[in-house]
Amino acid sequence: SIWRPPLSENSLGVDKENSQICFAFVGRLVDWKAVDLLLLAFKEVVTKIPTQLDIIGDGVERANLEAQVRQLGLEKQVNFCGWLSQQECAQKLQQVDVLVLPSLLECGGAVVLEAMAMGLPVIATKWGGPADYLDESCGILIDPTSQKEFIQNLARAMLTLAQQPELCQKMGIAGRRRIEEEFNWDVKVEQILQIYQKAQEDFFK
Fold first, then answer.
1. CA 28 to chain centre
2. Other Cβ atoms within 10 Å of 187 Cβ, number
């Protein structure tokens, strides 16, 4: 399991008065992860605030994405970290402020849970696993409407968290609590037992 910091207002969230905010994407670099759309949104964010984007992962789209970064003039703001082990990924996530997962097809999205466990607010597409994990208390979900609107709303969400460090901290704390209350193994086992109990009761009615 991923390393988790102690739950406290001092250990979660960010204070960005004197430094730039850092976003991170974690996942395979394949087309349906929509990292190309993230880069277009990030370009809009860069024009308004100093910021950084770490792309953690590797895949067949990496060369295309690196070319897109050069085309957009984002070489100084975007860092391709490549594939990292779970421990290395956890260490990297300790250094960033917000996870962004723009996937257009994400049935699971366990990285969202890992980020929440580390006290990071999350911006994700409102589809599949992330839509089940996140609510307005701990993240921002973006409807996968038209490409133009998706990029605009993604940029708007990133700017919202970048410009409101107190909200960023509040969401991080709420996400960590949500993990402990709804997604740890003890809770999941109890939920499964309740489902089996109800199924048994319904069967013998």
1. 14
2. 13
CA of 133: how far to CAs of 8, 90, 181, in Å? 21, 19, 12
Instruction: Give the other-Cβ count within 10 Å of 92's Cβ.
Output: 17
Q: The pTM is what?
A: 0.82
| Sheet of 122-125, strands arranged across | 78-82, 51-56, 21-26, 98-101, 122-125, 139-142
The string of pLDDT tens digits covering residues 23-73 is 999 999 999 999 999 999 999 999 999 999 999 999 999 999 999 999 999
Whether residue 47 contacts residue 159, with contact meaning beta carbons closer than 8 Å, is answered with: no
Question: Which residue is associated with the tokens 């089940």?
Answer: 132
Beta strand ranges found along 58-164 (DSSP E): 78-82, 98-101, 122-125, 139-142
